Amino acid sequence: MKLTLRIWRQSGATGRLVDYPLDDLSPDMSFLEALDVLNERLITAGQEPVAFDHDCREGICGMCGVMINGMAHGPEKATTACQLHLRHFRDGDVVTVEPWRADPFPVVRDLVVDRSALDRIVAAGGYISVPAGSAPDAHATPVPKPDADTAFEAAACIGCGACVAACPNGSGMLFTAAKATHLGVLPQGQPERYSRARDMVAEHDALGFGGCTNAGECTPACPKGIPLTTIARLNADLLRAHTTKSDR
């Protein structure tokens, strides 16, 4: 099949979209494999390859985030860019590929952005305080099944930043809520539960992420399908943090 990749190229303060026609592509290729083919041809021609983030290529690491035709990770629901296959496009399509667009995600080069702001939100949550001593016996602390399911659902967040890129406000609340929730609903995460929520949201705001107005664009863009109710749970913890002195 043939595709034209219209790719954002940037090496300084400004950038532009450049068209790259590609032919002889297999519909079974992943989108990143198509970028690999393009880069091999650019290098062979003595040109600068397209810079893009990638790592596991299994939909786990969250590195491959790009906007494809204006959609975070592309048109397929619950699919990362590395697992998006060319068969989801039509022969002859023009596909626009851009980096995440958000103030806290400055463009480093081409499709690569600096997403370290997400790491700083996690770091602001601090550590879990636990009594020192020997390791507890397995299953010594019972966890209700609904709480375990909720924690597992939130822990599926891969930190790709798609929620930020899709949000009209550039908010990272879905990410922040997922990272706070997977600790906050478990017994082991109760120490500092509410102060953790307060500190993570404060860091989120200080880094320049927009406020959440429940636009709901983040959940459809999330490759792991983390629900909007996760934000509601964070808001409840945040409210308690501001109305009580207790961290538990």
From TrEMBL:
Highest taxon listed in the record's lineage: Bacteria
One Pfam match: Fer4_7
PROSITE patterns the UniProt entry points to: 2FE2S_FER_1, 2FE2S_FER_2, 4FE4S_FER_1, 4FE4S_FER_2
Cofactor (UniProt): [3Fe-4S] cluster; [2Fe-2S] cluster
Domain 4Fe-4S ferredoxin-type residue range list: 148-177
Keyword Iron: yes
Keywords per UniProt: Iron, Iron-sulfur, Metal-binding
Coiled-coil blocks: none
Name this protein carries in UniProt: Succinate dehydrogenase/fumarate reductase iron-sulfur subunit
Lineage of origin: Bacteria, Bacillati, Actinomycetota, Actinomycetes, Pseudonocardiales
